[in-house]
Structures are given as C-alpha cells and as structure tokens.
Amino acid sequence: MTNQAQGAQPELPGKPTSASRTTLSHIMTGSDTNLLGTVHGGVIMKLVDDAAGAVAGRHSEGPAVTASMDEMAFLEPVRVGDLVHVKAQVNWTGRSSMEIGVRVLAERWNESTPATQVGSAYLVFAAVDADGKPRPVPPVIPETERDKRRYQEAEIRRTHRLARRRAIKELRAQRATRRTESAAGAAGAGGAEGAAGAEGVEGR
C-alpha cells in the first residue's frame, strides 16, 4: 500500500436529505420594516442564511460557513403580521461544500389561508474544522424525485458558477496583459523621443 493510499481519508457514509431538512418560522413585526412599510429584504436574507446554516451544520455535523448566495429572489412583498416559514434542505454536496436550497413562504398570523411562496435562494456552505480549514462532508442521498431533480439542478448551477469564475479570471488576466503592453509601449516611445532630442542637440 502506498503512502498516498494510507493517508487517504475514508469516504463518509451518506445522509438522506430528510436528515437535515429544517423549517424556521418567524412573525414579522414593525422593527422589520423598510421605508415602504414592508419587511426589509435584509431581514428575509438573514432568516434564509440562518436556516441554511442550520441545515449545513446538521448535515456536516459541525461548523459550516456561508461561501456564497446565489439567485436570491423576492417574489412577493412580506408584511408586518406575516408568519414567515423558511424551509431549507441540502440539494447537493461536494468534498467539503454543500448547496442549500431555501424556500420562503408567508401567511397571515391570524388567518387560515394557505401560505404563499414569497422568495427563494440557493446558498453554498463550506464545512470547516476548528482551525477554519475545509473538512469533508457526508454525501447527500436524494430520496424523492424532487430531491433528485434539485440535485441535478444544483450540479448545473455549480458548473455555471465555475465557468463564470473562470471566464472573469481570464478576462481580468487579458486586461492586465494589455495594460502592461500599453505601458511598455508608452515607455518605449518616450525613450525614442528622448534619444531623438539628444541627437538634435548634439548636431547643433
């Protein structure tokens, strides 16, 4: 057995989606409003991050930090007196990262009408150890057809995230190269003009 094989960490046993699925409920009050009198988007985003963080911690069985938030969509305004339910679950797992899908629903606190979806988001969390270094997470096991669809969609989003990051990095590298070449060209032109001026003085 090689040293690399000896040092390899055994794969963690998978965990079903339902093992960490979480719902966070909160009644909106006057302190949550914006200048328009509806609930501030930042309040909803904090609830989303809290619920997603609980799911990530449960699934990974330890600390997890928010790495990114994708596609935070506000579909309907939330009002004071709404009972907001934030439903979160693990959609996909990598080696140390997890995509958490979140749905936000709202209903009047004193009415029996069905809750309406008012928002959705996808967040990427990274599991970390006591030193803040990445640590492995258990693979998620989709249980239902909906879970399987969400897993596949999460893989598409991850591919797009990586492609976007790579394209932006390449674009910035190209612009930096062009700036360097432009600066070198300007310096060369300045040196040539100086040399020509010197020759003119000496020829007098």
Descriptive account of the structure:
By secondary structure, the chain is α+β, with helices and mostly antiparallel strands. The protein is built from 3 helices and 7 strands, in the order H-E-E-H-E-E-E-E-E-H. The protein has helices at 3-7, 41-60, 145-202; strands spanning 15-16, 22-27, 64-74, 82-93, 97-108, 116-127, 140-141. The chain has a 5-stranded antiparallel β-sheet. A hairpin with a 3-residue loop joins strand 4 and strand 5 (97-108). The longest helix has 58 residues, at 145-202. The protein is globular. Residues 1-7 have low confidence and may be disordered.
The separation of the N and C termini measures 83 Å
Largest sheet: 5 strands, antiparallel
Structural class: alpha+beta
Instruction: Sum up the overall morphology in one term.
Output: globular
Approximate helicity band: 40-55%
Could you spell the SSE succession in H and E letters?
HEEHEEEEEH
Q: What fraction of residues sit in β-strands? A: 25-35%
Mean pLDDT: 89
Low-confidence parts: 1-7
Radius of gyration: 27 Å
How many helices?
Answer: 3
Biggest β-sheet: strands ordered side by side in the sheet: 2-4-5-6-3
DSSP strand count: 7
